[in-house]
Amino acid sequence: MIGPVIDHPLQSARALIEHALQDPAKRPIVKSFFDPQTFTVSHVVRDPQSNACAIIDSVLDYDAASGRTSGNCTGPVIDYVKSESLDVCWLLETHAHADHLSAAPLLQAQVGGKLAIGHEIVRVQDVFGKIFNAGTEFQRDGSQFDRLFNDGDRFKIGTLDATVLHVPGHTPACLAYVVGDAVFPGDTLFMPDYGTARCDFPGGDARLLYRSIRRLMQLPNEARMYLCHDYKAPHRDHYAWETTVGAQRSDNIHVHDGVSEDEFYSMRTERDTTLPMPKLILPSVQVNMRAGQFPPPEENGVRYLKIPLNVL
Question: Residue 311 has what pLDDT?
Fold first, then answer.
């Protein structure tokens, strides 16, 4: 008789959180920066016992009308890191975002850090490399990043222990980072009163998202959860991005305890048909699949972004 499958990465994440809940020295300090243009939240995650930190899901300003980029969003992050004399160990991406350009290369040049993402980015690179006809010079092996994380991989931020959970569904490459008692699920979950991420991008899967979320909801209820976006639910008069696993389990309007996979699948797929594509999906993905780098310059020295017609 085959026994239940033991989810070792989840067990490891649970143990890490439980240990941190008992030991304040293992609880990270989190400073968050909200970009109202893309509704994105970037997080600086600090070790309370050293100057080590990580930056999660950075944002590069991009004006679609002019094609101009700037570092306005990264300015406050860089100022904070420098004013606090922090040592940036990691630049962490939860996935290849479709709503903003990553500022990882700019941050790496200014404050350092190893750039990491999930190993399944190679699937995203393969799919979107074809969509953007990126050519053979575009490597589809994730080599643009310093580290590709697999489910259950562990790493350190100073003295802080951290681990990785693969949570596909929104995209094939989505990760949740667990650092001490804090969970960073990327776009997998929004605030409980707003719900969950869409699944209609290439490689998205509503059933996989449901299973990924239920996996995260097996983490301790007291775990802090820091989200990547907030679009402000209609009844709320302020933006918010911090909640708990317990609040998601009891109150998430799409996937609280008691919602079945079939119910979620029906809701999510029907809802996704009503949503427009993100305004910056085409520039964002073709930059983010390159680890935030722009396509190589052409003969005139100018870099160009492509707009594939009638594809998405």
Answer: 87
Based on C-alpha coordinates, what's the Rg of the chain? 19
Instruction: State the pLDDT at residue 135.
Output: 87
Rounded to whole angstroms, how far apart are CA atoms 195 and 198? 10
Token pair listed for 118: 């999930």
224-226 vs 242-244, strand pairing mode: antiparallel
How does strand 87-92 pair with strand 52-56?
A: parallel
- In the predicted model, residues of the chain with pLDDT beneath 70 are 1-4
User: In whole angstroms, what is the distance from residue 200 CA to residue 204 CA?
Assistant: 5
Task: Return the H-helix or E-strand segment holding 132.
Answer: none
Query: Whose structure tokens read 């996937």?
Result: 255
DSSP 278: P
Predicted local distance difference test score (pLDDT) of residue 5: 75
Residue 29's closest CA among 142, 158, 139?
Answer: 158
The number of beta carbons lying within 10 Å of the beta carbon of residue 130 is: 13
Q: Residue 5, CB half-sphere, CA atoms under 13 Å: how many?
A: 4
Q: Cα-flanking dihedrals φ and ψ of residue 226, to 5°?
A: -110, 120
SS3 (DSSP) at 172? coil
Query: What pLDDT shows up at residue 195?
Result: 97
- Tokens linked to 289: 């699949």
Q: 8-288: which CATH number, 3.60.15.10, 3.90.180.10, 3.30.360.10, 3.40.50.720? A: 3.60.15.10
Q: Domain locations in the chain?
A: 8-288
